[in-house]
Structures are given as structure tokens and as C-alpha cells.
Amino acid sequence: MAVDRFGRNIHYLRISLTDRCNLRCVYCMPENMSFEPTAHLLQYDEILTLMRVFVDLGFDKFRLTGGEPTVYPDIVDLVGEMRGILGPEGRIAMTTNAVLLPNLAEPLARAGLNRCNISLDTLDRERFKAITRRDRVEDVFAGIRAAEEAGLLPVKINTVVVRGFNDEQDVVDIAALSIDNDWHVRFIEMMPFGEVADFQQSQIVTEQELIERIECALGPLEPMYGGRVIGEARLFRLAGSRGHLGFISSVTQPFCASCTRARLTADGRLRLCLLRDGEVDVLTPLRQGATETELKAIIRDAVWHKPWGHGLQQNVIPVGRVMSQIGG
Ligand code: SAM
Ligand code: SF4
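A: This is the predicted complex of the input protein with S-adenosylmethionine.
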């Protein structure tokens, strides 16, 4: 088991497989993003070695992310090997833009992927192009259906709300998807990173604002679980809906006290808080021949020093990297 100084049991690892992506979302990366040379990133066997170490330390929830995890060349084989290491009980999930899911959802499910969170900020083709700088919204819709058919359930739709881009009709249209579909729609507050932090902070839209907009268009939102935050989201239901919707407000309402996560960046750094710059290099010891026992000690020590929470309220903003490099 890996515990931190505050007694939190850290057992959920998000692995960024690559910093590359087939979209260029305005809040995530610039159009001319420069990617790391592949040799600087964790290689296939290195990911599996680290996975074995994390499983030995009691980690039982893994999420593959990036960048875009589906552009990782051997993604289906990798998921299959990960499932072999983890065994049938643990959970392997993915966060994806879904563009490549029409071909990949079924093989990924067969290889052992349990579920996926799909990022979608608008249903409108032109606004999709404005946000992602690519014309792929049709592929995303097809990808969502493919995920559903492949049994990657429940389908979760994650929407980052950006003032002036998708904070009006899009929010309502996406919330309405939860009426006829058994989907979990989650609205995510934009978080500040690196060089785009000023843009991200000035365009943030709060949960209260969104609730008012959705209720005005679609009727009252009934709070679920007494309005408590479950995991990371506060959940609501529209009257008669098959699915539900939620708000992940990491900036204005942090859920740090119940955080059980660590992140492995694509270049092999262990990052204990998404919103703090501190990282521990595991790639270098791995390449220098550290044994699994030695790697375990490095990871245990890093987990022990996990920061209590982010410092956004004190104006401490992560500056080193953008989200796609850390793994969202
Ligand atoms: N490419 C995949 C995708 O978009 O789902 C996985 C990686 S992406 C970095 C993971 C999630 O982070 C996406 O839902 C994306 O919308 C979100 N994201 C990116 N930059 C963000 C930011 N500045 N604040 C909040 N969420 C962000
Ligand atoms: Fe790519 Fe995901 Fe970042 Fe959009 S949010 S640019 S899809 S990594």
C-alpha cells in the first residue's frame, strides 16, 4: 500500500502515454506545439515495468491519457498486457477525444479496457473547429456510439467550459444529452497551466453560473446524494432523464482531501498533484537499471511527500508544463 503523510491511500494512477494529439484544443496546447522526441518518453516495456511496480504497491485503478492515448501506436496490445499484469479485478480506463474510437473501441474493450471518458465541448461543428482547431466532430459522435456498443460503460462525457467559446447554448445542448442517453455528463472548470494560464483564468465559468443556465433552459436540477461531492463531482439529474450530469470544480471547490491519485507523465515523471509543479523522475533510475524493489522505494517516498492540495487560492500556478504533457 502507498500512503502519504496525511493518511491518504494513493492507489489510482493516471498514465500519460504520449504528449502527442490529433486535436489542438485552445485551452490545452498551442497550434504549433512542439512535442518531445519519442526517445525521451516512456517506452512500451518501461510502461509495463512501472505498471508491475505500481500494482505491487497496491494501485488498482489506472487511467490512460495524454496527449491523446489512442494515437499511441501499440495501444491495443499495451492495454492487453496491462490487463494481464493487473488481473481481472482492477480497473483500466481511458480519457480520450474519441476521434479514433470508431475503429478502436471494440479491440480496446476486448483487450481489457473497462470504460472511457470522452471529452466533448460542443455539438456544433463550427464551434468544435474553433475549440479544437480541427474538423472532427462527426468522428467524435461516431466514437461515442462505438464506445457504447463496445460496452465501455458508463459513457462519461467531459466538457471543459470556456467563456466565449461554449458557455451558452453548448452547455445546454450537452446537458440535454443526459435526458435520452444513459450517459454521465460532467462539466469541468478550466484550470490554469503554463503559458496559457492567463487565458484559462480569465475564461473560467463557475458551477453556479452553469447550473443557472441549464435550469433556465431545461428545468430544475435535482441534486443526487444530498448534493455531496462523490469522487470529484457534484451530481444532478434532470427530471425523467436516463443519465445524469455533474460538475467538477477543481479550482473553486477543490476535492484535495479525498484525492487518491498520482500521475505518471509521458516522460516518466511521477507527479503527485496535477496543479503543483513538483515531480520525481522515475525514468532515469529505470534506464540506469534500478531494480523493481528500488523503484518501489522511490515511488513510496514520492507518494509519502504528496502535497496536501493545490495552491491556486494562494495564486500558486503550475508553470512548467501544459495539461497534455502532464496527462489530464
Ligand atoms: N486527449 C484526451 C482528451 O482530450 O480527452 C486526453 C488528454 S486531455 C489533456 C484530458 C482532459 O483534460 C480533457 O477532458 C481536456 O478537456 C482536459 N483539459 C485540458 N486542458 C485543460 C485545462 N486547462 N483545464 C481543465 N481541463 C483541461
Ligand atoms: Fe488533445 Fe485532449 Fe489536449 Fe484536446 S484536451 S488538445 S484532445 S490532449
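The first strand starts at residue 12 and ends at 18. The pocket of S-adenosylmethionine (ligand 1) is lined by residues 21, 27-28, 65-66, 68, 95-97, 119, 158, 160, 188, 190-191, 193, 200, 323-324, 328 (CB under 6 Å).
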